[in-house]
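Progress report, Aim 2. The chain analyzed during this reporting quarter is listed below.
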Amino acid sequence: MAGANARSMESLVGELEAVRRATIAMLEGFPDEAWGRWGTASDKSVTVRALAWIIAGHERHHMSIIRERYLNG
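Predicted structure tokens for the chain:
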């Protein structure tokens, strides 16, 4: 749906790397007191810490798909 099939692997890898670097920079910039704050995501209450773990798990999911589909295991 995002049109990824029309893009080069180099373009997709570059985007993945850029988003990962930006996410890490954002998380590293949070003050200690931010990690326990609560908010709402998809109509569910969640902490900043939980969102960081969700983001990390989502990245692992995508890396698993890349390994399975494009790197032969």
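Residues 19 and 44 are 24 Å apart (CA to CA). The chain has one domain: 9-70. These observations will guide the mutagenesis work planned for the next reporting period.
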